[in-house]
Write a structure and sequence with these properties.
With 450 residues, this protein is of the alpha+beta class. Helices cover 34% and strands 20% of the residues. The chain contains 15 helices and 20 strands. The strands form six sheets. The chain has a five-stranded parallel β-sheet with strand order 10-2-1-14-20, with helices on one face. The protein has a five-stranded antiparallel β-sheet with strand order 16-17-18-15-19. Strands 5-9-6 form a three-stranded antiparallel β-sheet. The longest helix is centred in the last third of the chain and has 21 residues, at 429-449.
Length: 450
């Protein structure tokens, strides 16, 4: 039976929900306050150049994201650069060189560890010991703790922590290891390093801007299936109707609503309903601690090119070395030759330096660690900081589920929890997409079983 649904928010969670509902034959309207689609993973324009509000790496384990990209009529092979799992630092920068060959899992990791440069015998044995123990445990923790505590418990070396585990934790959870959930970290490692398919551990770097990768294609998919996307349309209030339906600002009536905004916006919208059944959900969303992510773009002469599409960097704030990864955008998009993107996860302390000083420090860091003095003088820089990019993914964090507690009203976003805690992801694109899909299926399965 065809239903009418409203999705508030045109980010990745919102479009995942909208596409699933449209695929099931329902009429869907998406409301987005901004003019650009994508939410907190979107296209921006600076210095007459199309950038992203943050440089992203996806994983081969992001199965739902890849499925929806294909469903929207996109070819991931054309839009995404696929690289084998790797953690490669510039030569002579105090890092390591770890790259997995294209062998079946888990042989690819064993071979990568055997051939890794920059790790001592004790480091390699510690990594083997940790991986073996986690596989034996099924990559599960029944009592959550911090990532730092977990690594200490399994005697991981200082060097391995500094060059591998800590950067992976920051990149995946955007939370420092001392405060990050070991359970959620292991969920990510299980689905990538510990997966039975080698491709699950591949690193996927978008070549297209983030809005073009899925949100804009998803909007076309909806329109082709009778749906609509309304940009510049902020939903200020929800109204529950006596017959169980909902009314939005447009005056239309909907059989169900999915709130797919940020947790802050969702909590504000739900508070206005003044429904006691929403109290627990609102409290959980308001308890989140935001974490920032900064991306510094540096434009050089078009002839500037790195030897690899991206490098890991040793961050050392005491030396004003804030950058954690550097990407050569020219190897992703020929029109962006000479453009480098440097990522800083959990970037609160770095962002406090201010745009000019931080960009200058990053340029100096690149010049030193890459041994290329010309990188100290970019033609222009652009620093983009998403102050509420994610929530701090701390141990035993109480996250709301898709269910709001009120019939016909669901939540979707990277902050929601799965009913099975072993499936919880940090605030990533895949988490947002999975949440959106789960919300849509809760509606369609619910209607089918009534």
């Amino acid at each position: 039976m065809k239903q009418r649904y409203a999705v508030i928010g045109a980010g990745w969670a919102g479009f995942a929900a909208a596409m699933e509902l449209a695929r099931a034959g329902h009429a869907v309207t998406v409301f987005e306050a901004a003019r650009t689609l994508g939410g907190r993973a979107r296209r921006v324009e600076r210095e007459s150049t199309v950038l992203d509000n943050g440089q992203h790496i996806l994983l081969g384990a992001y199965t739902e994201t890849l499925r929806l990209i294909k469903l929207a009529g996109q070819d991931p092979a054309e839009l995404i650069l696929t690289l084998p799992l790797q953690m490669r630092y510039p030569a002579d920068s105090g890092g390591m060189d770890f790259i997995a060959p294209r062998l079946p899992a888990p042989l690819h990791l064993a071979w990568a560890l055997l051939r890794a440069k920059g790790l001592q015998r004790a480091d390699k044995l510690a990594l083997m010991r940790f991986s073996t123990a986690m596989r034996t445990m099924g990559w599960q923790l029944y009592n959550d703790c911090s990532v730092s505590e977990l690594l200490q418990r399994f005697d991981q070396t200082d060097r391995l922590n500094r060059l591998m585990w800590h950067p992976l934790c920051l990149a995946a959870l955007n939370t420092p290891p001392g405060r990050a959930s070991a359970r959620v970290f292991l969920n990510v490692l299980r689905d990538s390093l510990g997966a039975s398919r080698r491709r699950a551990s591949d690193m996927l770097i978008p070549k297209a801007n983030l809005s073009a990768l899925l949100p804009e294609a998803a909007a076309r998919y909806l329109e082709q299936h009778g749906g609509a996307v309304r940009t510049g349309a902020k939903v200020a209030a929800l109204h529950a109707l006596p017959d169980g339906r909902w009314q939005l600002d447009d005056g239309e009536h909907y059989d169900g609503v999915i709130v797919a905004t940020s947790s802050v916006q969702a909590a504000s919208l739900l508070q206005d309903l003044r429904d006691a059944r929403l109290a627990d959900v609102i409290n959980r969303m308001q308890a989140f601690t935001p974490e920032a992510i900064s991306t510094c773009y540096l434009q050089y002469d078009a002839s500037v090119r790195l030897d690899l599409p991206f490098y890991a960097l040793v961050d050392a704030p005491e030396q004003q070395h804030w950058g954690q990864f550097v990407f050569d955008r020219g190897q992703l998009d020929a029109s962006q030759a000479g453009l480098l993107a440097v990522v800083i996860s959990a970037s609160g302390p770095a962002a406090e330096q201010g745009h000019g000083p931080l960009a200058q420090a990053i340029a100096a860091q690149l010049a030193q660690v890459l041994q290329r003095p010309e990188l100290a003088q970019p033609a222009w820089t652009q620093l983009i900081t998403e102050k509420r990019a994610t929530f701090a993914c701390t141990p035993d964090l109480l996250r709301p589920s898709n269910a709001s507690g009120v019939p016909g009203l669901l939540l979707a976003g990277d902050y929601t929890a799965n009913d099975d805690r072993t499936l919880d992801y940090p605030a990533t694109i895949e988490a947002a997409v999975r949440s959106g899909v789960a919300a849509a299926r809760a509606f369609t399965v619910g209607k089918m079983t009534k």
